[in-house]
From TrEMBL:
InterPro entries reported in the protein's UniProt record: aa-tRNA-synt_IIb, aa-tRNA-synth_II, aa-tRNA-synth_II/BPL/LPL, Anticodon-bd, Anticodon-bd_dom_sf, Pro-tRNA-ligase_IIa, Pro-tRNA_synthetase, ProRS_core_prok
Protein's job: Mitochondrial aminoacyl-tRNA synthetase that catalyzes the specific attachment of the proline amino acid (aa) to the homologous transfer RNA (tRNA), further participating in protein synthesis. The reaction occurs in a two steps: proline is first activated by ATP to form Pro-AMP and then transferred to the acceptor end of tRNA(Pro).
Catalytic activity entry: tRNA(Pro) + L-proline + ATP = L-prolyl-tRNA(Pro) + AMP + diphosphate
UniProt keywords, alphabetically: Aminoacyl-tRNA synthetase, ATP-binding, Ligase, Mitochondrion, Nucleotide-binding, Protein biosynthesis, Transit peptide
Enzyme class (EC, first level): ligase
The protein's name: Probable proline--tRNA ligase, mitochondrial
GO molecular function terms noted in the UniProt entry: ATP binding; proline-tRNA ligase activity
One GO location term (cellular component): mitochondrial matrix
Domain Aminoacyl-transfer RNA synthetases class-II family profile: 106-372
Localisation: Mitochondrion matrix
One Gene Ontology term from the biological process aspect of the record: prolyl-tRNA aminoacylation
Top-level taxon in the UniProt lineage: Eukaryota
Family statement drawn from the similarity comment of this UniProt entry: Belongs to the class-II aminoacyl-tRNA synthetase family.
Length: 483
């Protein structure tokens, strides 16, 4: 590293170190204020998250009337997310993910981690820059056609930006000469950026050229064991969508260019979905249209039910691969007889950024975003009265409430924002809060000044408004689940 850069790094590191090691300075003084841009620590207090300081550049302008926002608004989630300053378009199919989106995505990643590790998954991270040699060995270098982003390094060697990592992970496992049947099933997964040269990127984060995906790969001793692993991953996916409160159907699917024998898609029914599904009205059967013959109108499972067509957004995909890749790359283990045997594989994808956008797509109203509660960027927004209004003195109560919530309810630490834009009316700020979709909005006004203080609470997911005492409020918010 060049000396100047090294110096800069050292200085940056010392600064970072200081902030991490000495968090008390935030509490006891205002000297470090600049280091926490979204919060303004008043002396002697914990920092409060202020709406006026959050970096959301579009700042809730009406996108339809705003020519400064580039990109064609092709669906609700894209329009709402751009309008709320959650994403910002860069080039076709590529977006800036702004801070609120990152909060939401990090929560989603934690839920995914819990579910994947719950079935024995171990997280790793593989290079995005994949050598063409691997892809040529599996013959997918040619098979993938124009979807693959290809590039050359300075020595003229071919690479691609990985859209999926069957080749890479199988090679990795093949390198371990001592893998024993006792270590199987082995489930390895990563959550990383993926690249696909989409001919027509559209629908915001739903069909981009650069996106986040969770991809897991399983290695088993036998076909039977591989099917059990396959089943446990499908169950984990179902649990994940249940926890998010998203209705998801598991449909039989085509195996496409991944290869293999058994495959399912996890689809969120939605009008803008690009996949056509056939769902039985009588039993649990559902399939992607691509896998069915075009004249089939009766259910192949129960035989009596009629198949109804609906559209879906594909958010997950599972494949049983058999020995397709393990055979090519020689991923073997030593079996109970101490003989080398080829592993049985499966691969399992989840579109992380796609789940975010799809959730916004199916849960939101036309006017505002509604999140699955677990992954909302912030859980609570507190609105103090307008500056100079008759109930101005409630402002202090609002600030105290934000402090108290963070102290009394540990799961809400860092989840409560104060809309300090008190030059705006409560009505205007309520409208903004509705657009952003905080699960709970608390209005601190006249009621808070009464002898028995009352707070107006708007539960945005249900559309309900309730008036609660301080204890009632703590009780309600105490039940909020965060991750
Ligand atoms: Zn049926």
């Amino acid at each position: 590293m060049e000396p100047v850069m090294l110096q800069l790094w050292q200085r940056a590191f010392r600064r970072l170190h200081r902030t991490l090691i000495l968090p008390k300075r935030f509490d006891s003084g205002c000297a470090e204020q600049a280091a926490v841009p979204a919060s303004a620590p008043s002396c002697g207090r914990k920092p409060v998250l202020l709406v006026s300081r959050l970096y959301q550049p579009s700042n809730l302008r009406d996108v339809a009337q705003d020519s400064r926002l580039p990109g064609e608004m092709s669906c609700k989630s894209q329009r709402l997310m751009q309008q709320a300053g959650l994403i910002h378009p860069s080039s076709p199919g590529c977006y800036y993910y702004l801070p609120a989106t990152i909060r939401s995505m990090e929560k989603l990643v934690r839920v995914i981690d819990q579910e994947m590790q719950g079935i024995g998954g171990q997280k790793l991270d593989m290079p995005s820059l994949c050598s063409a040699d691997l892809w040529k060995t599996s013959e997918r270098w040619d098979l993938m056609g124009k979807e693959l982003f290809r590039l050359k390094d300075r020595h003229g060697a071919d690479y691609c930006l990985g859209p999926t990592h069957e080749e890479a992970v199988t090679t990795l496992v093949a390198h371990q000469a001592t893998l024993s049947y006792r270590q199987l099933p082995l489930l390895l997964y990563q959550i990383t950026r993926k690249f696909r040269d989409e001919p027509k990127p559209k629908f915001g984060l739903l069909r981009g050229r650069e996106f986040y995906m969770k991809d897991m790969y399983s290695f088993d001793v036998s076909e039977e064991a591989a099917h059990q692993t396959y089943e446990s991953v499908c169950q984990a996916y179902t649990r994940l969508f249940t926890r998010l409160g998203l209705r998801c159907v598991q449909v039989q699917a085509d195996t496409g260019n991944i290869g293999g024998k058994l495959s399912h898609e996890f689809q969120l029914p939605a009008d803008i979905g690009e996949d056509r599904l056939l769902v039985c009205g009588s039993c649990s059967f559902s399939a992607n249209v691509e896998t069915m013959s075009s004249d089939q109108s009766n259910c192949p499972q129960c035989e009596t039910g009629k198949l109804v067509e609906s559209k879906g957004i594909e958010v997950g995909h599972t494949f049983y691969l058999g020995k397709k890749y393990s055979h090519i790359f020689k991923a073997t283990f030593s079996n109970a007889q101490n003989k080398p045997a080829v592993a049985e594989m499966g691969c399992y994808g989840l579109g992380v950024t796609r789940i975010l956008a799809a959730a916004v797509e199916v849960m939101s109203t036309e006017e505002g975003i509604r999140w699955p509660g677990l992954i909302a960027p912030y859980q609570v927004c507190v609105l103090p009265p307008k500056k100079g209004s008759k109930v101005d003195e409630a402002t202090l109560l609002a600030e105290e409430l934000v402090q108290a919530l963070g102290e009394t309810l540990p799961q809400l630490r860092g989840e409560v924002v104060l809309d300090d834009r008190t030059q705006m009316t409560i009505g205007k700020r309520l409208k903004d809060a509705s657009k952003l979709g905080y699960p709970y909005v608390i209005v601190v006004g006249q009621g808070a000044l009464e002898e028995t203080p009352r707070f107006e609470v708007i539960c945005q997911q249900t559309g309900e408004t309730v008036f609660l005492s301080r204890d009632g409020l703590l009780d309600l918010l105490g039940r909020v689940e965060t991750v």
